[in-house]
């Protein structure tokens, strides 16, 4: 797999911002979704958007499940690009939204986080019960780290649910990424962008559940470290930000993954410093690392201006498809 950034789009920040705002998300007709609401075991809900079928539904074809990033959704540029890839390759496609990200606030006294492997596991098991064909999963940014954490926790049983997983631009070292996004240009642009939506959602959660956290401390938060210390960590069972970032990071346990796993990180990603990325000798035999020099954070634009974002889904989706047949037959005894 190779990626070379176009000459007209230099640097990690441009390669991050331009694809998200201006590059073409799809090359054909925009994908259409139908929504399902799933009740969770803790009496909450998540919303799942399924790609609308263009032709006859084949029950045993491959399903691509896409877990979005921080404050993302099925409408994010990468989700739309993966939807088009799935449609072009005759795959079913679904985007389960993390709690509170589908446009409606969830009910419980929690939200979502980078190590949410239990939620990932429940979602994938639900897909396994409703889909008879092979399943592959890709997580982007936060969703990718959480997906890898699920694969680590599931160990050898992961193959009973999915054939292969991929994580794209994921902060697998949360401390390194958290400190990077809290400094300089990143703090002025990306941190401000995230907090602009995260703080109001947190305050709405406080209105649902009075006393859940310190409102004044949340309003004072100026970076993700402070936000996680007030909101994310305590609501999800962590002592503080350091405990959350340490226990939720996928990097330390990449040797424990027992299914084919692709970990994609551009070395000029503003959110994930190159120095914190693992070498192939630091991961298990089932893990493949792809660390191109360019691409930014979930960027990987190609083509003439304004460019398009199909190159990454083509590379990642193609890799996932290559790892389906043998693993699915060995585990389930049937072909896709």
Mean pLDDT rating? 95
Tally of strands: 8
The radius of gyration over CA amounts to: 19 Å
Number of domains: 2
What is the CATH C-level name of the largest domain? Alpha Beta
As laid out across the biggest beta sheet, the strand order is 1-2-4-3-5-6-7-8
Pick out the low-confidence regions: none
Helix and strand run: HEEEHEHEHEHHHHHEEHH
Roughly what fraction of the amino acids lie in strands? 5-15%
Helix content: 25-40%
CATH fold naming of the largest domain: Rossmann fold
Descriptive key words:
Rossmann fold, globular, alpha/beta
Protein model, in words:
The protein is of the alpha/beta class and 336 residues long. The chain folds into 2 domains: 12-173 and 253-332, 3-Layer(aba) Sandwich (Rossmann fold); 175-248, no CATH class. 38% of the residues lie in helices and 13% in strands. The chain has helices spanning 12-21, 77-88, 117-130, 142-154, 174-181, 184-208, 215-220, 224-235, 241-248, 311-322, 325-332, and strands spanning 33-39, 45-51, 63-67, 92-96, 135-140, 164-168, 261-264, 287-290. An 8-stranded mixed sheet has the order 1-2-4-3-5-6-7-8, sandwiched between helices. Strand 5 (135-140), helix 4 and strand 6 (164-168) form a beta-alpha-beta unit. Helix 3 packs across helix 4 (142-154) and helix 8 crosses helix 9 (241-248). It is globular. The two termini are 25 Å apart.
């Amino acid at each position: 797999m190779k990626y070379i950034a176009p000459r007209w789009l230099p640097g990690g920040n441009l390669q991050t911002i331009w694809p998200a705002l201006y590059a073409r998300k799809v090359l054909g007709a925009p994908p259409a979704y139908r929504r399902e609401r799933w009740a969770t075991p803790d009496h909450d809900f998540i919303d799942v958007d399924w790609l609308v079928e263009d032709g006859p539904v084949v029950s045993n074809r491959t399903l691509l499940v896409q877990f979005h990033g921080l404050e993302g959704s099925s409408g994010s540029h990468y989700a739309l690009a993966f939807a088009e890839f799935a449609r072009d390759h005759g795959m079913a496609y679904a985007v389960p939204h993390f709690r509170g990200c589908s446009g409606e606030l969830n009910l419980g006294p929690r939200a979502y986080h980078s190590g949410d492997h239990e939620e990932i596991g429940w979602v994938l098991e639900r897909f396994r019960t409703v889909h008879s064909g092979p399943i592959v999963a890709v997580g982007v940014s936060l969703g990718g780290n959480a997906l890898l954490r699920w694969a680590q926790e599931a160990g050898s049983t992961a193959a009973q649910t999915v054939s292969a997983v991929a994580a794209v631009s994921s902060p697998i070292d949360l401390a390194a990424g958290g400190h990077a996004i809290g400094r300089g240009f990143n703090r002025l642009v990306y941190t401000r962008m995230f907090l602009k939506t995260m703080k109001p959602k947190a305050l709405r959660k406080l209105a649902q559940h009075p006393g859940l956290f310190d409102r004044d401390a949340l309003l004072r938060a100026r970076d993700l470290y402070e936000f996680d210390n007030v909101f994310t960590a305590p609501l999800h069972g962590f002592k503080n930000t350091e405990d959350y970032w340490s226990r939720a990071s996928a990097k330390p346990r990449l040797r424990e993954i027992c299914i084919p796993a692709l970990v994609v990180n551009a070395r000029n990603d503003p959110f994930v410093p190159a120095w914190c990325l693992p070498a192939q000798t630091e991961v298990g035999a089932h893990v493949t690392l792809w660390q191109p020099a360019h691409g930014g954070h979930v960027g990987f634009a190609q083509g003439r201006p304004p460019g398009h974002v199909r190159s990454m889904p083509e590379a990642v989706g193609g890799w996932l498809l290559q790892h389906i047949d043998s693993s699915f037959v060995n585990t389930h005894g049937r072909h896709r």
